[in-house]
Amino acid sequence: MPPRGVAGTALLYKLLGAAAFQGEQLDSVLAIGKRLLDGMKTMGVCLESCTLPGQSSKSHSLEQNQMEMGMGIHGEQGRCRVEMRSAGEAVRSLLGELVAATPPGQVVMMLNNIGGVSQLEMGILVGEAITGMQQQKQHQVVRLVAGQVMTSIDM
User: Fold this and answer.
1) Which of 103, 124, 102 is CA-nearest to residue 113?
2) Which member of 3, 78, 80, 143 lies 3.0 to 4.6 Å from 70 by CB, making a disulfide possible if both were Cys?
3) Which fold has domain 8-147?
4) Which of 86, 85, 95 is nearest to 131 (CA)?
5) pLDDT of 81-102, one tens digit each?
6) Which residues contact 115 (CB under 8 A, 6 or more apart)?
C-alpha cells in the first residue's frame, strides 16, 4: 500500500505539537514523527472528485454507480474504482486492506469526514468501523478519532 497521508497528517501534527509542548527536544520530536509515519496507514473513499481552487470543473469524474478507493485530498485519482457499495461493504473493504498492512498491536483509528458526509452517515460509518475492528483479533483500538479533521472543497 503506497503511503498517503490525507487526514493522518493532521493527527501527526497534533501528536508532535503535544510532544513539543511537553518539552521534548527537537530530535526526540523528530524520532516520534518518524515512528508515527512508519506505522501510519490511510485510505479514503469518494463518490466524486473535488474542484481545485482556480479551476472551473472537477479534477476528474466518476460514473453514477462508481466509488473511488484510495483517493487523494486534492482530487488525485485513487487506487481503483469499484461499483457503488453499501457503507458496511466499503468500510470492510478498507479495513481489510489497512489491517493486512499493519502489524498486530494497538492502533489509533481515525475516520475523517472530508466534507461530503452528513453526521448521520458518519455515525453509520463509525459504527461499521468499530464492529469491523472488534471482529478481527490482531489489533486493539486504543483511541478513536472521528469527524471533520481534514476537509476538501466539495468532495
Assistant:
1) 124
2) 78
3) Hypothetical Protein Tm841; Chain: A;domain 3 (3.30.1180)
4) 95
5) 999 999 999 999 999 999 999 9
6) 148, 151, 152, 153, 154, 155
